[in-house]
Structure formats: C-alpha cells, structure tokens
Design brief:
With about 180 residues, the chain is α+β, with helices and mostly antiparallel strands. The chain is built from 6 helices and 5 strands; from the N terminus they run αβαβαβαββαα. Helix 1 packs across helix 3 and helix 2 runs antiparallel to helix 4.
C-alpha cells in the first residue's frame, strides 16, 4: 500500500529531527536478510539503545535537505539501494551490534555503507572493525576516574605501609616483653 502524503510528511519530519539531533549515524545495506533476521537485528539494536529504521532513500534525502546542518549533506550520496539508518549516542554500539550479528549469523549483511560520527565519515572494509573497537563513553569515564584515583591510592598505600610495619614492630616488642 502506497504511503499517503500526510504519512510521507510525518516520516520526513521524524527523520529530519533525528538527523539534526544525532551526531552518530550509520547507514547500512540490509538487502538479502530474511524477515526473521531483520527482526533479530532490530531487537539487537533496540537492546543496545540504538534506533534503527529502514527508510526510503527519497524521503531520507528530503529530510536531509530540510535541516540546516550542511555537514550531514555528505550522507546524501550514500542513499542508494536498500538503506537502513541507525542513530546512536555512542559511536561503538551500532558497530558492535552489526559485528556480533554478522558473526552469529555467518552473514555478509547488514553491510556498513558509511558511518557519520561527529562530522567525520567512516567507510570501507576496515571501518566497522575500527569503530567496534572504540571505547564507550562509560568505559572512557571509568578509565579517567581510575587514573584520577590511582595517585591517591598510591599515597594512601605509601602512608599506611610504613605505619603498619611500625605498628607490627611495636606489637612484637610489646609481646616480647611479656615473655
């Protein structure tokens, strides 16, 4: 059943908002996936808090044309053939979902067409691997907190080490006097 003008306008508005508010966008080719595989892939993206949607190329192009961000226009040339778009707040999550899906299903699809991350484009055969290896924001924050706490832990250990040795020596002297 063809889309009505109202439905198309609604889709374009939604895509425009997503393109404008997202700094991490993945375009994939999903052709060749069965319905069951597509549903599984969607569920995996949903579990990873990644919004994944199949869209018509012309509607996506109209959505991009509507927004003020001229950097995102570089995606226009990649809207050909079957296209699905993943929107995320973490650059590694969509790549990890795709990689895990490819490995678990021994499949070649979905295929990364291009990833738009903070104004930069990533494409090519090695892009998916490189993006999947990126640390998430939570992991980076954990690393920074660990680095900030390490000097305090070292100082604490240095101060308590000699004190406990001294306390042990005093205790053994005191124990020796009783005998």
């Amino acid at each position: 059943m063809p889309l009505t003008r109202a439905k198309k306008a609604e889709i374009i508005d939604g895509l425009s908002e997503q393109f404008e508010s997202s700094s991490i966008i993945y375009l994939t080719n999903f052709s060749g996936l069965t319905v069951a595989e597509t549903n599984e892939l969607r569920a995996r993206f949903r579990d990873a808090d990644v919004e994944y949607t199949v869209c018509k190329n012309t509607l996506a192009q109209l959505a991009i044309d509507r927004i003020d961000n001229t950097d995102i226009e570089v995606l226009s040339e990649h809207f050909s053939g079957p296209t699905a778009v993943a929107f995320s707040d973490d650059p590694a999550k969509p790549a990890r979902v795709i990689q895990d899906f490819l490995k678990d299903n021994e499949s070649e699809r979905p295929e990364l067409k291009v990833a738009y991350i903070e104004g930069d484009l990533y494409d090519g055969p090695d892009a998916l691997d490189a993006l999947a290896k990126l640390k998430s924001r939570e992991e980076l924050i954990g690393d920074i907190v660990g680095l900030l706490l390490a000097p305090a832990q070292n100082i604490s250990g240095a101060l308590t080490g000699p004190a406990s040795t001294l306390a042990g020596a005093i205790q053994s002297i005191a124990d020796g006097d009783d005998e």
